[in-house]
Amino acid sequence: MKYEFVETFLLAPRALCGPRLATSHSRTPEVVRVSLLEVRDLDAGYGELQILTDVDLDVADEEYVTIVGPNGAGKSTVMKSVFGLTTHMGGTVTFADEDITATKPEDVIHKGLGYVPQNDNVFAELNVEENLEMGAYILDEVPQDALRMVYDRFPILEERKDQKAGTMSGGQQQMLAMGRALMLDPDLLLLDEPSAGLAPDLVDEMFDKIDEINEAGTAVLMVEQNAKEALRRCDRGYVLVNGQNRYVDEGDKLLNDEDVRQDFLGG
Ligand SMILES: Nc1ncnc2c1ncn2[C@@H]1O[C@H](COP(=O)(O)OP(=O)(O)O)[C@@H](O)[C@H]1O
Ligand SMILES: [Mg+2]
After folding, report:
1. Which residues contact residue 124 at a Cβ distance below 8 angstroms, ignoring those fewer than 6 apart?
2. Which listed ligand is nearest to 117 at the C-alpha?
3. pLDDT: is 15 or 131 the higher one?
4. Ligand 1: which atom is nearest the Cα of residue 73?
5. Rounded Cα–Cα distance for residues 91 and 224 (Å)
6. Which protein residue's CA is at the shortest distance from atom 26 of ligand 1?
7. Could you tell me whether strands 20-21 and 244-250 are parallel, antiparallel, or unpaired per DSSP bridges?
């Protein structure tokens, strides 16, 4: 999908067809807000090193969006940039109509953004419940309703609430990291490779949990190596290559596109 059509596309997803190459940057200026998260012309990197160039990205309220692409494409860098963890070099990040460009993580979480990083996403030395409580550290008191909701969503966490996080399996740690991010009941949850390193049956379970979270009203922006499954499940997908947008379209359309399959989905 070409970039000037993104906003139109979000308003009328079924009106357009066929995955489009992301080429031009001219966009219609008179746009009603349709995006919860709106990334425009983002340039970002680490120190002097620029990784992202002119990245555009939208996530609508309650939408489920996936970013796929080769290793090193900059997918994690996009997530980190939204969360204020990279060097900002240009462009804007808007969340719920507020400019949050280069806003620090400790400020971003107040605004309804939750982030589960790709690595080191639990406090290994703390037990499960302490990890969850840390998710709400910005509040004066632990929100008991949120804790209840997390335990209902992930019963294994309640069963193991006194266990040290570092002694749990990869899948359980991933669920804990997700649970922690849900403690502030975010409007948008950023998930970086939630299925990484999980056994195949756990991968399905993880994706099912993400579906449930999204169906309960939380928008999701997810990076996944398991690209086919991610595109099958999401509403829309982005293919990122070399720090730049390459394709954007409905997940199914990307999944069935000859070029996308050939180049990015292993045929
Ligand atoms: N902290 C960092 N400092 C310097 N370069 C980094 C850092 N993190 C990632 N990179 C580089 O940024 C590029 C994109 O990385 P990343 O966003 O992790 O890709 P992906 O998530 O798509 O695999 C890679 O070349 C990687 O080496
Ligand atoms: Mg990554």
Report:
1. 164, 165, 166
2. 2
3. 131
4. 22
5. 24
6. 72
7. antiparallel
Q: Is the CB of 68 under 6 A from ligand 1?
A: no
**In this predicted model, what pLDDT tens digit does every residue of 239-260 receive, in sequence order?**
999 999 999 999 999 999 999 9
Residue 183 near residue 214, CB atoms below 8 Å: no
DSSP result, 39-78: EEEEEEEETTEEEEEEEEEEE-TT-EEEEE-STTSSHHHH
Q: What are the residues facing 241 on neighbouring strands?
A: 244
Domains and CATH numbers, the chain: 3-112+186-264 (3.40.50.300)
Q: Please state, in angstroms and rounded to a whole number, the distance separating the CA atoms of residues 19 and 248.
A: 7
**Residue bearing tokens 């009941």:** 185
Q: Measured between alpha carbons, how far is residue 63 from residues 59, 74, 154, 167, 221 in Å?
A: 6, 22, 22, 34, 8
Residues 242, 252: Cα–Cα separation, whole Å: 23
SS3 helix, strand, coil % of the chain, rounded to 5? 35, 25, 40
In this predicted structure, the answer to whether residue 4 has a pLDDT above a threshold of 70 is: no
For ligand 1, atom 20, the nearest C-alpha belongs to: 72
* CA 254 – CA 264 distance, rounded (Å): 10
Please tell me the distance from the alpha carbon of residue 165 to that of residue 57, in angstroms, as a whole number.
Answer: 34
Please give the torsion angle defined by the CA atoms of residues 104, 241, 170 and 145, in that order, rounded to the nearest 10 degrees: 40
Distance, CA 74 to ligand 1 centroid (Å)?
A: 6
Q: How far apart are CA 23 and CA 33, in angstroms?
A: 23
Percent of the chain with pLDDT over 70: 88
